[in-house]
């Protein structure tokens, strides 16, 4: 039963990726996980590095990633914003009405 569920989720992921890629005219990766991620890990945010330009570095918190078999933790890191007024909108897992969770990438908002 679980194997059948995982096969359906995988087939749905392939279909969504194919449709998204053809609609946008570019390749896109959509990650679908069969269960909710574990709670976020506590991270100690290190002191920021000196800015590479006039923009201060922004901390992007770590998050859980589904590697196709299990949950894996991606450590947080500092990133250079594209412009001084840009604000980082973190990625998140969104539960789907049909089951599973889809990763929504983080992005810079101006």
In words, what does this structure look like?
It contains 1 helix and 9 strands; from the N terminus they run αβββββββββ. By secondary structure, it is α+β, with helices and mostly antiparallel strands. It has a domain of 51 residues. A 3-stranded antiparallel sheet has the order 1-8-7. A two-stranded antiparallel sheet has the order 2-5. Strands 3-4 form a two-stranded antiparallel sheet. A hairpin with a 5-residue loop joins strand 7 and strand 8. The chain is elongated, with a radius of gyration of 17 Å. The N terminus is likely disordered.
Supply the key terms:
110 residues, alpha+beta, 3-stranded antiparallel beta sheet, two-stranded antiparallel ribbon, disordered N terminus
Draw up the topology in text.
Layout: H1 2-24, E1 32-33, E2 58-60, E3 63-66, E4 71-74, E5 77-79, E6 87-89, E7 92-95, E8 101-104, E9 107-109
Q: Would you summarize the structure shown here?
A:
The chain has 1 helix and 9 strands; from the N terminus they run αβββββββββ. The chain is an alpha+beta fold and 110 residues long. It has a 3-stranded antiparallel sheet with strand order 1-8-7. The chain has a two-stranded antiparallel ribbon with strand order 2-5.
- What is the beta-strand fraction? 25-35%
The backbone outline, from C-alpha atoms, is elongated
Q: What separation lies between the terminal Cα atoms? A: 46 Å
Name the helicity range: 10-25%
């Amino acid at each position: 039963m679980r194997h059948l569920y995982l096969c359906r989720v995988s087939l749905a992921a392939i279909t969504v990726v194919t449709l998204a890629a053809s609609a946008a005219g570019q390749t896109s990766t959509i990650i679908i996980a069969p269960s909710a991620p574990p709670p976020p890990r506590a991270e100690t945010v290190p002191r920021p590095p000196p800015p590479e330009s006039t923009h201060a570095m922004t901390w992007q918190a770590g998050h859980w990633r589904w590697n196709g078999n299990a949950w894996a933790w991606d450590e947080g890191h500092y990133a250079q914003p594209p412009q001084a007024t840009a604000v980082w909108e973190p990625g998140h897992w969104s539960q789907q009405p049909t089951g599973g969770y889809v990763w929504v990438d983080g992005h810079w908002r101006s």
